[in-house]
Amino acid sequence: MINVGLIGYGYWGRRLARNIAADPRLRLASIIDERQARREEIARQWPGVTVAGSPLDAIGDPSIDAVFVATPVGSHFEIAHAALGAGKHVFVEKPLCTSVEEGERLIELAARKRLVLMVDHTFLMTGSVQKIEELCRSGQLGTISYYDAMRVNLGLFQPDVNVMWDLAPHDLSIMFHLLREEPVHLEANGYCHVNSTVPDIAYLTLYFPSNIVAHLNLSWMSPVKVRRTAIGGSSKMLVWDDLNREERIKIYNSGISFQPEKDREMIIPSYRIGDIASPRVSEREALSAVTEHFAQVVHGETASIMSGEDGLRVVRTLVSAQECLDHNIRTVNERWAGSASAARRVAP
User: Fold this and answer.
1) Euclidean distance between CA atoms 319 and 334, whole angstroms
2) CA 90 – CA 113 distance, rounded (Å)
3) Are residues 164 and 317 in contact, defined by beta-carbon separation less than 8 angstroms?
4) Rounded to 5 degrees, what are φ and ψ at 182?
5) What angle do CA 238, 239, 240 make, to 5 degrees?
6) For the whole model, what pTM was predicted?
7) Domains plus CATH for the chain?
């Protein structure tokens, strides 16, 4: 039995608590939250579980074997580093941390202490992503050429991260898991509508060594919630609509063929339009599979698919994308300001 201390009891912390308690190899021993009202709620909902207000209450408790961190991103490094230093296995809500240096320090400490450091890339445990991985690994899609994802909704505006850091980790973790490579180049654009320093719309384009291009449309400003991904292969293409419970994945036996290079006086493609199939996927709650995976990794039964190194790949990409995003937003704002100034000068 692995005794778990859960730090943070917000939206995700509540879901973690339920799944930790339901896992037969984990024991929810303590829940930490700095807010008095939440501690009172925890005491009512979880009788028998120790309730406290400081992360140090769990980190310093010798009976706690593992710490689950479900706090704002800016606190991830400090809490995880302290927990690893105290000899606890650590599970961190995505993203792992806010900088590459922080991620490298956490990975080094976990390796030195021989402890598990895992990042909550929950989508890797969904039946949909597991089915997509099966299709990719078996070669049924052929050679992958693109990954195109739309992940938009109205809110929820996060207090400590922008839309890219909030939503992009999902698709980045999925892409890196499926493609097993990192981008060689990326571009990022966006805009701040509500808060002048926090982008609420972002567009990322990533280029991979194997000639795959990926595009992410991320927004907190959409009137409708969309969670749709298209993956194009040379043999088949698929669309994953995570909000369509009846047909989450559709596989299209469709594609485009070109004449050989020597015959291309005119590039006239031929189109193949075939059948559409919708395979059944597991509807098990992904977070339940995540907590089970954590217990298996701690017991040395399997290798982690959401390790600290996996989390660092996502952070490294986010940091690079943030630099590009900041530069492009600044450039656009300067040009808008210049255009407005010029318009005032020529106004009658």
Assistant:
1) 23
2) 12
3) no
4) -105, 155
5) 120
6) 0.91
7) 2-120 (3.40.50.720), 124-289 (3.30.360.10)
